[in-house]
Write a structure and sequence with these properties.
Blueprint (H helix, E strand, L loop, with lengths): L3 H8 L15 H21 L9 E10 L4 E12 L2 E12 L5 E8 L11 H6 L3 E6 L13 H5 L12 H16 L5 E11 L1 H12 L5 E5 L17 H7 L23 H5 L6 E8 L5 H11 L1 H4 L17 E3 L4 E9 L4 H14 L3
Parallel strand pairs: 4-5, 4-6, 6-7, 7-8, 8-10
Antiparallel strand pairs: 1-2, 2-3, 3-5, 9-10
Helix pairs in contact: 5-6
Length: about 350
């Protein structure tokens, strides 16, 4: 049986530590230049180029005690300028009562109700975290309609190669939510952690990779075009995801259908662009579409980026780790949960324990 190292070598991934001009990445300074190259190829070929950051304003709409008075809930309206006028969306925030600022997990979620089956607010608070949430369709609908919401504000119905799709819209809104959160005195300025599941895990990764104010990232079951290397993976491939959800991506992503071996990038580029900040990846045993082994291989392949900063990234196991276990000793966490494609309480426990250690709670 082949080891993970042998499997990874056989995937023949593009070199992470080789500059576009063929030179080797030299130290942290060289990596900073390489990181720009990684973000550029991912923007041009996968997610589309994000608009230049336009800092958001915010308005507090509601505030009330919550969860037996151990927390305060706030609801904001976040607004920012776009080429077609001001765009606004709601932002939820819950903060534990404490004498010191709390780190905050910012979740982009599939449903507007709070709490939600993917979003155990009280449990997050009980671990010492504040938490914020944006409902993704308050930003733009999850379909081919490019006229509504933020997509319409950037005229994406006529988008060309290199222009963002819906993942780019959702990720940009996460950064605008971070604008508001970073101005809240009860939150740590070094403690904003993006989070998302499935397509919104891809969103969390793309936001954190671009926005260095983000202190850490959670990606749950993001799989194809997210946290799993594409070359050689099981389940979903670019031909599938671009047939079913072309609107998530730049139009240029289509040209990599059935040509994955020739791509000048793979998804370990996306994970590595988050270094040296902590990153947590979650997978599920009965989720071949995402392919847990390819998620783990992506974490391993991205590891040299953290090592440049003197940080251990991820242990190099010889084989796939056991079900219901985790690798959490380094700056990159990977867990392998029993069950199906879902953001479960068990997933949250892995993430909360990991970031509690990294942020010294």
């Amino acid at each position: 049986m082949a080891t993970l190292q042998e499997i990874l070598a056989a995937r023949k991934l593009p070199e992470l530590m080789t500059m576009n001009d063929g030179g080797a990445v030299a130290g942290i300074g060289g990596w900073e230049k390489r990181r720009v190259e990684l973000l550029d190829v991912l923007a041009q070929e996968v997610y589309g180029v994000s608009p230049a950051p336009v800092p958001a304003s915010w308005k507090l709409e509601e505030e009330a005690a919550a969860y037996a008075d151990k927390a305060v809930e706030k609801r904001f309206t976040v607004s920012f300028d776009t080429p077609k006028g001001v765009f606004s969306f709601p932002l939820y925030l819950a903060v534990p009562r404490s004498e010191k600022p709390a780190p905050c997990i910012l979740l982009m979620n599939f449903r507007a109700q709070i709490p939600d089956e993917y979003y155990p607010v009280e449990e997050i608070l009980d671990h010492g975290f504040a938490t914020a949430c944006v409902y993704y369709e308050d930003v733009s609908s999850d379909d081919a309609d490019m006229e509504n919401g933020l997509a319409g504000c950037y005229s994406l119905a006529e988008r060309r190669d290199g222009q963002m799709g819906k993942i780019g819209c959702w990720a940009y809104a996460m950064s605008r939510a971070a604008d508001a959160l970073l101005e809240q005195p009860e939150l740590r300025k070094d403690g904003i952690i993006t989070a998302g599941h499935s397509r919104l895990g891809k969103t969390s990764l793309w936001c954190a990779a671009q926005d260095r104010r983000v202190a850490g990232c959670i990606s749950n079951d993001a799989g194809c075009s997210g946290d799993a290397v594409t070359r050689g993976k099981l389940g979903e491939h670019i031909v599938d995801i671009t047939a079913n959800y072309p609107f998530w991506f730049s139009a240029s992503y289509q040209r990599h259908r059935n040509r994955e071996e020739q791509m000048p990038f793979d998804q370990h580029f996306l994970l590595a662009a988050i270094a040296p900040r902590p990153l947590a990846i979650g997978s599920a045993q009965i989720d071949e579409w995402a392919d847990p082994q390819s998620q783990l291989l992506s974490c391993i392949a991205a590891g040299p980026a953290w090592q440049l900063y003197g940080l251990g990234a991820l242990a190099m196991p010889q084989e796939m780790i056991p079900v219901d276990s985790a690798l959490q000793d380094g700056a990159v966490s990977f867990h392998y949960r029993s069950g199906t494609h879902f953001l479960s309480r068990r997933d949250w426990q892995y993430y909360l324990n990991f970031f509690a250690k990294k942020l010294k709670l």
